[in-house]
Amino acid sequence: MSFKIENLFSTGLSTPVQPYKGFVKHNFVGGHNSEENIPIDKLAESAKRVISQEGKNLALYGHNSGPQGNISLRNFLVSYLKDYVGMEISSENILLTSGSLQALDLINKLLLDPEDTVLIEEASYGGAISRIKNIGAKPIGIKLDSEGICIENLIEILENLKAKNVFPKYLYTIPTVQNPTATIMPSERRLKLLEIAEKYNFIIFEDDCYADLTWERKRPNAIYSMCKNNRVVYCGSFSKSIAPALRVGYVVASWEVISQILAFKNDGGSGAIEQMLLADFCTNYYYKHVGQLVKDLQSKCDTLIKALEEEFGSIAEYEYPKGGIFLWITFPDNIDTNRLYTLAAEKNITLNPGSEWVCNSEKGNHKIRLCFAHPSKEIIKEGVSQLAQICFEEFGIPKISANIKR
Amino acid sequence: MSFKIENLFSTGLSTPVQPYKGFVKHNFVGGHNSEENIPIDKLAESAKRVISQEGKNLALYGHNSGPQGNISLRNFLVSYLKDYVGMEISSENILLTSGSLQALDLINKLLLDPEDTVLIEEASYGGAISRIKNIGAKPIGIKLDSEGICIENLIEILENLKAKNVFPKYLYTIPTVQNPTATIMPSERRLKLLEIAEKYNFIIFEDDCYADLTWERKRPNAIYSMCKNNRVVYCGSFSKSIAPALRVGYVVASWEVISQILAFKNDGGSGAIEQMLLADFCTNYYYKHVGQLVKDLQSKCDTLIKALEEEFGSIAEYEYPKGGIFLWITFPDNIDTNRLYTLAAEKNITLNPGSEWVCNSEKGNHKIRLCFAHPSKEIIKEGVSQLAQICFEEFGIPKISANIKR
């Protein structure tokens, strides 16, 4: 009798993955950082120091800091978020999580029932969109312009929903270095959002995961900081500012939210060593490290844009990013980016097709997101050139390459 | 207008937690280790070495090892599980997780739909029982004796279920250093379990989280190793053998299982630094470290048992543990251990009431679980003495204390 364990699996599972084969040479996918920008020596030094000094706390779940996570790292965040983000909080408002993805899961579990409606920027983080859908809730996309969420469109949608007796639970927004558009929402619009949230009684879920990476290292204060009645739930991460393989993110919220999340965060706490290590590293080096990092990122961004200008000319449209690691590119209607994604992958170039990064997947069919943080400048140029060649062979455009006809 | 965010929470949430106030002096709860048994110097040294040598991999999600986790740690486990547990596997059969609690969540998500039936040892890990219930599945307790699951009772229950057309998805078992009973299931019974699993077509979920901590550092081979057709899914952890605040556990299973779990393990990977660190530490020091640790644990276990004999005499019943960190104690029927738990907590003594560690909570009303790994021998003696005093004041027994009438 041959036994197939698959016959006993639960219902509704998606396709199994293929074995991991490593990343390709021209890697523009996801949110990877570059090897050169990992502060290895300082991280190694911090790790040795904190384990020597505080390693005995590892004997306890919560390493003597309780279920909210390392108290030194929370204290660093209290001070950092005050200075850089304008937030007045205490360590009891912070919950350290296993990456900001766990923060998303926890907040969704706190707020969403199946069939709930959620407002979300029409182009947004794919993992946020898929999580909402996986719960059985309904994400509704709001139009974006160069300053983030279009207020008029938001109100129109809210009125339409209200007419149908639908009241969204929350609005998910990445106001500072939006993913994928890399815009920054000005303060006035943030205040307006809060007003609307009051009027229509929804929660604002502010994701600030990329917010440290503004070119000028300045930014409007967080929406969280502008709210007087705890209507905002906030999350952040060290994945983009230090390293993605460090799985440390955080939720900032009122104690009502934190205490309720802790009642179901039954994972025995998030990893202690990474939290301890970050507490030491950040207290000593964070500002300086991020300052250097964004210089390199902007320079790579410029390389990418120059390469696109040379290889694609006017057929690749984008706004100049205000920070971050992504460029969001719109092509003409005859370039199908799902097809481009497949063809590029065959040539070992990976990118995110726009359809995965929008609420209504059809609206992403001519867009792509490129991450410029990981590849070197040489690889960026090579990759864009090859991408243009693939486009030309499949779709007939772009017809120029570095001002020479193909 | 006063805004209450609670009004927008999802349905079915449990009671929010109280703020963390630190652990009490007489801490017999959970699975804490002792500060003295954390190999701080070697961990600090390993951390510095691996971050210096491999820190650049942190730039990538999966740190160049893919979504299954650090390849060096997986390779260590392949070799360790062969030598110590008798398992013939390769690194593709291992998925590193954020503690074995994530392993439980992932396996449950893989296998269980609401309304499914699960077989489980009648006294078992509280977190496993509550997880099954939270999904809406039904755990059914199987009787235990000094060698683990009672085969006759298992067959009887399976026949009863079959008569009702109910076919359990899996049997969850902790065969080696069972939690809480600390028994070890002999090889013959493991083989018998496999036979029954074949006949009734259920999966065996073998949790070996405490299995490294046998007093003799010998144990029967894993059920996983005895199975010819991938019917067993296995999990383990470093929480008990190194430190609980290190959130590193693992699933071992066929590629059919691993590839399907990876399709929904959407957390960006489990923490890299702890995996890298453990890979280095374990390769160099694991056997020696665990050998020393279990000597200390057995010695503390003996201290606890001596204290119980002196303070409680014959009214505290237990089997001598075969390893691990827990003692499972049965009191006479007039000692209500839920009440004892509350009274003890008021005097800063924490313990696990039996009702949380059994499938049918009433069956635990006269039992407690004490963890002897964390407190010092002095604290163990003091705690047991105070516990006896609390019992005497509330329930009138034990009447003796160190052979002197109270």
Layout: helices, strands, pairs:
2 copies of one chain form a homodimer.
Chain A: E1 26-27, H1 40-54, H2 71-85, E2 94-97, H3 99-111, E3 117-121, H4 126-135, E4 138-142, E5 144-145, E6 148-149, H5 151-163, E7 170-173, H6 187-200, E8 203-207, H7 223-226, E9 232-237, E10 249-252, H8 255-262, H9 272-312, E11 326-330, H10 337-346, E12 349-350, E13 352-353, E14 367-371, H11 377-395, E15 400-401, E16 404-405
Parallel strand pairs in A: 1-12, 3-4, 3-7, 7-8, 8-9
Antiparallel strand pairs in A: 2-10, 5-6, 9-10, 11-14, 13-14, 15-16
Helix pairs in contact in A: 1-9, 2-9, 3-4, 9-11
Structure description:
2 copies of one chain form a homodimer. Helices cover 40% and strands 14% of the residues of chain A. Chain A has 406 residues and is α/β, with parallel strands linked by helices. Chain A has 2 domains: 20-39 and 288-405, Alpha-Beta Complex (Aspartate Aminotransferase, domain 1); 40-285, Type I PLP-dependent aspartate aminotransferase-like (Major domain) (Aspartate Aminotransferase, domain 2), CATH 3.40.640.10. A 7-stranded mixed sheet of chain A has the order 2-10-9-8-7-3-4, sandwiched between helices. In chain A, helix 2 (71-85) runs parallel beside helix 9, helix 3 packs parallel to helix 4 (126-135) and helix 9 (272-312) packs across helix 11. The termini of chain A are far apart. At the A-B interface, helix 1, helix 3, helix 4, helix 8 and helix 9 of A face helix 1, helix 3, helix 4, helix 8 and helix 9 of B.
